[in-house]
Design goal:
The longest helix is centred in the C-terminal third of the chain and has 30 residues. The protein contains 21 helices and 11 strands. About 30% of the residues are buried. It is an alpha+beta fold and about 625 residues long. GO terms for molecular function: Delta14-sterol reductase activity; DNA binding.
Length: about 625
């Protein structure tokens, strides 16, 4: 555990986040866990800074005096000796003059060496209100900025180029022979080589805090999640899907069908082929811990259009799509088996991945935990990003296809010429959600699934099994348990869904646009709290209303998807209950992550925005 360098109450120079400016600050406290100093600027701003961003005042004064007084004295003494020489002196005098000349040359060379290896002088500014405004994005005139810089600048940052400076002086005064010059160049080249190959200390990326109950919790989840999917689907098949009426377990041989497994493989590789098509723009993701940015092709919406065209052709040739309804349990089992096989492949290949490519949350050293959460952050086969592909393509588009199959099955089983109003609402609401996700595909690059979580069993099972087979639960329920609703009720449910969608989409758009370009003129009316990471925390708009407005919109939409199923059974509302529990867990994880990342700035944000998801409730 490293000891702290600066004491509480000590006045030091702190670097302002996102700039090279240093201000006079006072240390107020120190976080032993995050190793961050809480400092207070003269204008009252409090930020959490790393120790590397703080310098003592004495070190700045020493550098200033050293840079301003070391070389002039030597230059003045050498000039005085130079004036005392006369070309009319005798030979002895000339010999003395040559000796003095050699001393003069040595002094000049020594002076240049001392100047060239001096540490770079840092820019110091006195804190002022104008500087703070400029950081927050408020414009200032050029003349005002120039005057403030002249008044507040103490030392100008500069770094001399030692090789060029020494070479210029040696050529001008011919201080050494060519042999000595060559020897000097070899010495400097050796120094350069030594600096270039100096090893850099590696920072450990081991996972220190485990989620989901650690090793035991993740092992139980790997058993409970597939069992839950199977239980829900078997419940929907019963005439009385009440919780007390536990379904009978089918024979194991009836749960597996190689033909169904072949369809799952065909579906996965068809979507992979659409992903590889050279259509759609290529964008860069957020910077990784190494500073590198990965490239992603944005063509999910095109893949959806091509899939819809393919399904339309199959329906034209009278393919019985309701086959999905008759074998939905078998499809779920096959998808679970495929996700397990994919997870094993992902973990095996992650064992050879470099340390910097491992997920920060899935590098605990425990097999079960890392297998579940994902050991590698961005597993790729060439340019094919497996996690990014599975996040939206096979499961999300498959969800729409299953809903369509349920709609056709309802019409066939109940001899309907048109689908029921309840089925139309469920299909329409969830289709809107999927199309929105694919249309705004680029926004997924800023989510924790992409930036923080590894790709393991949790995301593989969630993307390929949980999303398509649990999210389509309402449509599956309505096939066996039709529910009649009136048009006024349908209109009220539609309004509720629109409200949830508006909150969800506008909140996510604000966040994504601010993350990518905080200086966007469209966001000029938004206020934020600066943090030590250089990023800002929005305190106006939706993010000033509650801390996670996108989760609020999600829950409202989930309720609107379940209401068309009526109130005869609680089974259709499992999705709402699950979604609330999931988002509360995610919210708690986000709170912990943001507190570690932003420190005091997050505490100020929580004071400014006290409600997490539900205003005036939670």
């Amino acid at each position: 555990m490293p000891s702290r360098k600066f004491a509480d109450g000590e006045v030091v120079m702190g670097r302002w986040p996102g700039s090279v400016l240093y201000y006079e600050v006072q240390v107020t406290s120190y976080d032993d866990v995050a190793h961050l100093y809480t400092v207070k600027y003269k204008d009252g701003t409090e930020l959490a800074l790393k120790e590397s961003d703080i310098r003592s005042q004495s070190s700045f004064k020493h550098r200033k005096s050293q840079s301003s007084s070391s070389s002039p004295s030597r230059r003045s003494s050498s000039r005085s000796r130079s004036r005392s020489r006369s070309p009319g002196r005798p030979a002895k005098g000339r010999r003395r003059s040559a000796s003095q000349s050699r001393e003069h040359k040595e002094d000049k060379k020594k002076t240049i060496q001392e100047t060239s290896v001096a540490l770079p002088v840092l820019v110091l500014f006195k804190p002022s209100e104008n500087n703070t405004k400029r950081y927050n994005g408020e414009p200032e005139s050029t003349e005002k900025n120039a005057s403030n810089t002249e008044k507040s600048c103490i030392i100008l940052e500069q770094k001399l180029k030692p090789d060029l400076e020494i070479k210029r002086v040696l050529e001008q005064y011919s201080l050494r022979s060519r042999k000595d010059d060559k020897k000097k160049e070899e010495i400097y080249s050796e120094k350069k080589t030594f600096v270039a190959v100096k090893p850099i200390e590696k920072v450990s990326t081991k996972t220190k805090e485990m989620e989901f109950g650690g090793r035991i919790g993740t092992f139980m989840l790997m058993l409970v999640l597939p069992a839950t999917v199977l239980y829900l689907l078997l419940m929907c098949k019963q005439e009385d899907p009440s919780l007390l009426n536990f379904p009978s377990l089918p024979a194991l041989e009836t749960l597996w069908d190689w033909r169904v497994f072949g369809v799952i493989l065909l579906w996965f590789f068809l979507q992979a082929a659409f992903y590889l098509l050279p259509i759609g723009k290529v964008v860069e993701g957020l910077p990784l811990s190494s500073g590198r940015r990965l490239q992603y092709r944005i063509n999910g919406f095109y893949a959806f259009i091509l899939t819809a065209a393919a399904i339309g052709v199959l329906l034209y040739f009278e393919l019985e799509l309701h086959y999905l309804y008759d074998h939905l349990v078998q499809f779920a089992v096959s998808a679970a088996a495929f996700s397990l096989a994919l997870s094993i492949y992902l973990y095996v290949r992650s064992l050879k991945a470099p340390e910097e490519e491992l997920a920060p949350g899935g590098n605990s050293g425990y097999f079960i935990y890392d297998f579940f959460t994902g050991h590698e952050l961005n597993p790729r086969i060439g340019s094919f990003d497996l996690k990014y592909f599975c996040e939206l393509r096979p499961g999300l588009i498959g969800w729409v296809v299953i809903n369509l199959a349920m709609l056709l099955a309802e019409m066939k089983i109940h001899n309907l010429s048109v689908p029921s109003l309840s089925m139309i609402l469920v299909n329409s609401f969830q289709l809107l959600y999927v199309v929105d996700a694919l249309w705004n595909e680029e926004a997924v690059l800023t989510t924790m699934d992409i930036t923080h979580d590894g790709f393991g069993f949790m995301l593989a099972f969630g993307d390929l099994v949980w999303v398509p087979f649990v999210y389509s639960l309402q449509a599956f329920y309505l096939v066996g348990h039709p529910t009649t609703i009136t048009w006024p009720v349908a209109a009220a449910i539609a309004v509720l869904n629109c409200i949830g969608y508006y909150i969800f989409r506008s909140a996510n758009s604000q966040k994504n646009n601010f993350r990518r370009n905080p200086a966007d003129p469209k966001l000029a009316n938004l206020k934020f709290i600066p943090t030590a990471t250089g990023k800002g925390l929005l305190v106006t708009g939706w993010w000033g209303f509650v801390r996670h407005p996108n989760y609020l919109g999600d829950i409202i939409m989930a309720l609107a998807w379940s209401l068309p199923c009526g109130f005869n059974h609680i089974l259709p509302y499992f999705y709402v209950i699950y979604f609330i529990c999931l988002l509360v867990h995610r919210e708690a994880r986000d709170e912990h992550h943001c507190k570690q990342k932003y420190g005091l700035a997050w505490e100020r944000y929580c004071q400014r925005v006290p409600y997490r998801i539900f205003p005036y409730i939670y």
